[in-house]
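Q: I have two molecules that I believe assemble together. Could you output structure tokens for the complex as a whole instead of separate predictions?
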Amino acid sequence: MQCISFEQIGVLHKRFKQLSHNEETLRRDHFNEIDDLAFNPIRAQIIEAFFDRRNFHQNGEGKVQEIGFEEFVVVMSHFRPPSAHMTEEQRGKTRREKLRFLFNMHDTDNDGIITLEEYRHVVEELLSRSGTLEKETAKCIADAAMLEVASISVGHMEPDEFYEGITFEHFLKLLERFEIESRMIIRFLNMDTTTLCK
Amino acid sequence: KGKKTLFQHLVFLEGSVFTVAVASSDQHSPITAHSGSHKATDHGSHNNTGKAFPVLDLNYENVRVPFEISLWVLLASLMKLGFHLVPHLSNIVPESCLLIVVGLLVGGIIRGTGETVPPVLDSKLFFYILLPPIILDAGYFLPIRPFMENLGTILIFAVVGTLWNAFFVGGLLYGVCQIGTESSSILSRIGLLQCLLFGSIISAVDPVAVLAVFEEIHINELLHILVFGESLLNDAVTVVLYHLFEEFSGIGSVTLLKGFLGVISFFVVALGGVLVGVLYGILAAFTSRFTSHTRVIEPLFVFLYSYMAYLSAEIFHLSGIMALIACGAVMRPYVEANISHKSHTTIKYFLKMWSSVSETLIFIFLGVATVAGPHDWNWTFVTVTVILCLVARVIGVVGLTFIINKFRIVKLTTKDQFIIAYGGLRGAIAFSLGFLLNKEHFPEREIFLTAIITVIFFTVFVQGMTIKPLVELLAVKKKQEAKRSINEEIHTQFLDHLLTGIEDICGHYGHHHWKDKLNRFNKKYVKKCLIAGERSKEPQLIAFYHKMEMKQAIQLVESGGGIKMPSAVPSTVSMQNIQPRPSTKPAPERAIPQLSKNKEEEIRKILRTNLQRTRQRLRSYNRHTLVADPYEDGLSDLFLKKQKMFQIEKKMNTYLTVPAPPPDSPTMCRARLASDPQAYSIKPASNKVPMIQVDLASPQSPDSVNLLDEFGQANQQEEEEQGLMMKPPSRPREAKKPSEEDEAKDQQRLMRCLSDPGPSADEDEDGAFLP
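A: Yes, here they are, computed for all two components at once.
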């Protein structure tokens, strides 16, 4: 459902060739060569997101080892800004797509649920480049966040019930107010001329 | 109800007494009041020979000036007080309107008593005393993130919009003056340059008026920052245009070179102002790094450096407002990392207080100045001005939005445009600039002033009063009141890094990339210079988290020990529910003794009274030690009791608390230094304190309060059970150490809480520490 224009595809293709050293497919080590990414605390997750079948819009699962240009573009299309004239339904769909992408990044074991361990990992990675790795604090921040999700989504729980983890629906509810469709955007994919629906 | 009306009457009586006092005190001849000094005539004598020693004397002249000033400020404050006592008035009429009316009344009274109305809105007073606190308040608490995100839009509105307004109004006014009136009338003598100057004065949206009105309508953040940011940034344009046209009118000839120089001077004024502000901001941040031993004067540095920035910019005719904003915005993250909690509160409340008083005074003075005149009412000029201002504003906003929307991701809707156009209020800055005009160069000064005042009145009264119902009518999105959640904070950071990463993969250096680079530069070099000690390394997420936790702790203590849900969403979910159930260990069997309601009430009462007593007993008269000496007799025991109570609260708490960071972590150091420079060592926990341990089975059922050994000793095995509930059972037994640090931290926290008057629950205009 993402529409991308001719110019953008051209630019992306150029970049693809540049990253893959003119080969047909991209592999993980190609991504590792990007210098600017070295400073990014969550680079591992970002790279993984490109090789995650769930992001290819083909209802696949699991990881691949290398991707072609088509998959590259599909992953990039998650960051497209919303077009000016969108109905409410389209806007909702875009939201779900983007939040699904984020969800997939957190849910590393593909079981459809972000468990406490996975969430802890997320927070730890976020804090990993900040110098002082206070593991305890990271853990507790993650715990607090999880507690909040549970409070918002489930509300009432008996003392001996167990909250499995964040499902996609809970995730949607959690980030309701977040306005993700206007925040998760790369501006350079904003060129809005002749569109070609893929 | 009778008491309330009586009180209102008293306040208004006081107010009116003071207005009379103000009126009479403005006389130039010294008052020889007969009412108060009959004693003096008894004892003193006015004979020239053998003058007796005056036991009671009256000398008003010495104190006249401070006395008058204080009277004015007192009047302003009492009026502000009075309005909120009258039940429905503040809902219908915005405060600014009421204050102007009061000013009119005062002016009327003064004139009625036959005195000359003092020129209170003297430009020097306004620009150097009244305006800076308001701007500093705005700049210091400017929400950086939305401001930066919308900076392009704001700049376009501020610069292009103001220019358009100035030229449109000025030009058309000149046209009307020439064409529409007879050649002998006074209007036709107004030159083009004068009209343009007038246009530039009247076209600037005024931050004071905008603040005053927008404060009360609570619209969403985007619109607020757009209009408000515009009002702040258009100062540079106004300054340049004003000086430019003033110069030209004086000299009389306009050359292309001068026009070109004007454009250059705009950049100099704007960027120069910002540069001056940034310099002073860095100085302030650097100074605050060393204030750990003199906490008392920390707020003073903030105020002084900011004011110096403003004045320094004014020396060079740079934009003082932009300097002030830049100074406040730049110094804030670093200063806040360095100063104590109390200083932070002091700064906040002082800024709010001064800006509030300033605003009140400005509006009252506007009213008085209106009565004072001198006026020259000219129907044509005034009405044309008002209409042109409105039209120019609407056209400007609509036209600019059309262009801006091509570049914005979140487009501005028609509703937004309407609010932006309607919110373009004029205020006292325009009046003061008009007042500054030289009478020789501008014989039509009075016409201008009258027109300016009319426009101000129109915008403040008509637009100010109707904007609130219009906002309701149009169903404009309001400010979201909900608290920031930890999940949103996590995802904000996550998203930032994600977008930066994607930009790097694309090879496109967008604004995320540069923002990230700036952040890294900031972290690596700047913070090390400007922030004292360990605090410089604390990442934003952790800072945010500690801040939230602190707020929550303060809330708990203030609620007096009730079992209250601190989280926004009432739920019964607790830590147990999310901890992964280990497969090996069986759920521990706990025999929870039933506790009667009476006993529980008793416990609560003990806790509450202890807390109240401590509050009353806290003494700190010495300027050097603002916190009560913990070694003072009896107080330490009370503190320990509080600390135990606090531990109970923590366990009743469904929200997570972080285990105490190690004693020399940045937060701990800050906490320690903040509350009490003397409290470096903590007295060991006494064993004779009544201990109450609560098990968090379910916070709702009071039956789960488990009362151990009320007057016996604290048993050691309780340390093991005590630990924080979130530890998974597999964790090694380091229970002892964290709990000690816990106590230390709690005690510090409590001391901070108890000696702090306490931030109110509705404070939250300051976001996270770093942008």
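A: One point stands out. Residues 119 and 145 of chain A are 9 Å apart (CA to CA).
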